[in-house]
Design brief:
binds zinc ion, mainly alpha, single chain
């Protein structure tokens, strides 16, 4: 396998899955997607969960271990099986940490497979990882020869859009957390003012 530092070698674009790396997209959009179910779960762990599939699979692939099996950056970490296992462990031992991880991973898988539909030459190759081993025992083959080639593809419109939206959502979340007290106070003042106005009318 070619070492990752050989950035800039000629890029081959083949019909395959996922063209880049989404960081803020997974953190921001992923945590927003998970919001209906995240109540009572540790938010920091949820954020880790939104990145967990890439944290597992990218080092696994670029370390060069088992190249016959680990054929890309979507392998064990990107399976619904891993997500279901985390969820089942969370339920069995009543762990909010595992539940938060499972929720984060679910959002990551959803977003990856959604983005697959909006890149040039989309294919269903990514589903091989998501539904592994039910569609076969092989994983999708990464179309890039170096990590540099993969990172270079982040400049596609769908990737840039996901990063911008994800970053904005994260900033909004942290702004709300920091200003929670002021927001509650202002809302209470508005409600009280409305009540006073109503009372004066009667
Ligand atoms: Zn991924």
């Amino acid at each position: 396998m070619m070492p990752f530092w050989r950035f800039g070698s000629k890029m081959k674009v083949r019909s395959s899955y996922y063209r880049g790396v989404i960081l803020f997209g997974h953190l921001g959009i992923g945590s927003k997607l998970a919001s209906p179910w995240k109540r009572g779960l540790p938010f920091g762990v949820l954020l880790v969960g939104t990145m967990l599939p890439d944290l597992v699979d990218k080092p696994l692939f670029y370390s060069g271990l088992a190249p016959g099996l680990i054929t890309g950056t979507r392998t064990f970490g990107h399976t619904a099986l891993l997500c279901a296992t985390l969820w089942a462990v969370g339920l069995a031992i009543r762990s909010r940490v595992f539940a938060a991880l499972a929720l984060g991973v679910a959002s990551h898988l959803l977003l990856d497979n959604f983005v697959d539909r909006f890149v040039p030459n989309p294919s269903s190759e990514g589903l091989l990882a998501l539904l592994w081993p039910f569609l076969g025992t092989r994983f999708p083959v990464l179309p890039y020869r170096t990590i540099g080639e993969q990172v270079a593809t982040v400049f596609q419109p769908v990737m840039i859009g996901a990063e911008v939206v994800g970053l904005a959502l994260l900033q909004w979340h942290f702004w709300k957390s920091v200003h929670r007290t002021e927001i509650v106070e202002s809302a209470t003042e508005i409600i009280q003012a409305k009540r006073t106005r109503k009372l004066k009318r009667y």
